[in-house]
Design brief:
With about 170 residues, the chain is mostly helical. It has 8 helices and 2 strands, in the order ααααββαααα. It has a two-stranded antiparallel sheet with strand order 1-2. Helix 1 crosses helix 3, helix 2 packs across helix 3 and helix 5 crosses helix 7.
Length: about 170
């Protein structure tokens, strides 16, 4: 297979990916407008992720609590226990791995735009950045379920902004 045919194939697959993403977003905007807009109100979550969450999970209101939803997505630690020994693993292997990947990527985006998440990241900066970003993804999953269950768009916590303003005044 020549380089030219590989490039054409790659371009074709990229275009198909874009078309499918556009179709999925349009479908969610039309049929799940409220949930789609609520998810989009969270910093770091764009149209593609909002529609992917709706497509993969369906109605998020079916989850009784954040723990169930986080476990479903797979942003909770896996635990291996045998006899009296218990070992904490990385993220659980039983999950929606593609959706988890999307959410972890969106956590990096949220890190740039959300001051609360930036403060959390700086607080844990001495630790492994990959494990901290999984914790941030877990926070985002909690936010997703919260905005859907409350029916209110996400509002930025202004406590951090007020503290910064008070420090500047002093």
């Amino acid at each position: 297979m020549s380089l030219d045919s590989k490039l054409r194939s790659l371009a074709f697959h990229h275009q198909e990916y874009l078309n499918i993403g556009t179709t999925l977003r349009a479908y969610c905007k039309k049929h799940y407008t409220r949930d789609y807009n609520l998810l989009r109100s969270i910093p770091g979550i764009g149209g593609f992720l909002a529609s992917a969450v709706i497509a993969e999970c369906g109605d998020l209101r079916r989850f009784a609590n954040e723990k169930q939803f986080s476990s479903y997505i797979g942003v909770v630690p896996g635990i291996y226990s045998s006899g009296g020994n218990e070992t904490m693993l990385g993220v659980t292997p039983r999950s929606k791995s593609l959706l988890r990947t999307y959410i972890i990527e969106s956590a990096w985006v949220a890190l740039r735009y959300d001051q609360e998440i930036q403060a959390y990241y700086r607080k844990h900066a001495s630790k492994n950045p990959k494990s901290v970003i999984v914790k941030i993804a877990h926070k985002m999953v909690k936010r997703m379920l919260s905005v859907i269950k409350n029916g209110q768009p996400y509002r930025v916590n202004n406590t951090i902004n007020k503290l910064k303003e008070e420090k500047e005044k002093q």
